[in-house]
Amino acid sequence: MKRKKTLIRSQMTKPAAPCHLSSMKKFVSFFILLLFYFQLIYSQTTIPFRFRIITWNVGNSEPNCETFRQLAFSSNVDSIKGDLIVFGFQESAKKVFGSYSLHKTIIQCLQNHQYTMILSDYVGSNVIKPIWLYLFVTNVILQSERLHLLTINGETTLKVYQDKILENIFGYKGIIASQIQIDNVTNLVFVNMHLPAGEGKLTERCQLLSKFFQTYQTNSNNQSYMFILGDQNWRTMDSMSIADILQAIQENDYQNILNNDELTRMRQNDHSNGLTQCLRTFYEAPITFPPTYKYVVNTDIYLTMKDRKDRRPSYTDRILVSNMSTDLQILRYSSMNDIKMSDHRPVFADFLLQRQTNGNKSMQQTVNILEVALVEINNS
């Protein structure tokens, strides 16, 4: 009993550390951790991510490797190749028997340029004019693990058809989408489509888009971008004559044509035009190239009459993005007039995504630990 009392007495009589010394140690620890934290933060660098999106109605042609090289690399800003290349094809021929030459050719061609295919899939008929979506990344990006393929509604691709009956056999209008993530932060969704054709079919085109958006579900964050690409079939309205359109093209007066373009008109804030509304919140870079449809194959001549019906030169092939920010830049938006094997001209857009990132998982873990430590010191 005496021994126990002695222990208690010795503990009670032990001199306590001065309060100001304890506070000083806490302050010094907090200051050191804070300096280390800011050193890590400010040591981060901006790692750009470049990518190109191409949309092209192939018109049942069979492009060779040189054509794919043009699509992927021509007109590059500063001659810098993209980290990612997205191909959206419509009306691409698919053979019933034998190998599919477009599919084999594009894979082999891009492999020769040190690109790896991470996704290829199609929507619509598996025989007649399928709508293909391809994603290629450089081998360097693939090894860096900066990019991850995500799912949409639990699948690597989301497919929406125009029709409900025999759509897998005869249908060749539809939408296919895929999603990737860059640096574990930014989600990019690519949506390739072939919308209903014909002048005045604006409502039908918007209905198919609406069907896609109703089907599409994702846990998108504030750093998400959706890219709408494809032969969307928006037409020049009959408020502008074919003769006036051709004259505007000759004079490079593309804005005059766009003033009578279905997509441009319906995305305006003016509801008095009575047009169906869709894609109003999406952004499109300024168009500085001539209409991409409808050409006489292998010529620069527009086909303005078919089956005794007028065919107004139109901007059917488009690329839009859901939103813009300081992180995303559109470097170029144009068509490729040298590729003439289809009645459509290919359209491409080059993008630059810039975010502050260290690309180092262990460093990020250290930052997370420091943040917890700072909170604990502050609360102690």
UniProtKB/TrEMBL annotation:
Gene Ontology terms describing biological process: phosphatidylinositol dephosphorylation
Gene Ontology molecular function, alphabetical: phosphatidylinositol-4,5-bisphosphate 5-phosphatase activity
Domain Inositol polyphosphate-related phosphatase, first and last residues per copy: 47-359
SMART domains reported for this sequence: IPPc
Pfam family, one: Exo_endo_phos2
InterPro entries for this protein: Endo/exonu/phosph_ase_sf, IP5, IPPc
Gene3D superfamilies: Endonuclease/exonuclease/phosphatase
Top-level taxon: Eukaryota
Descriptive protein name: Inositol polyphosphate-related phosphatase domain-containing protein
Protein's organism: Adineta ricciae
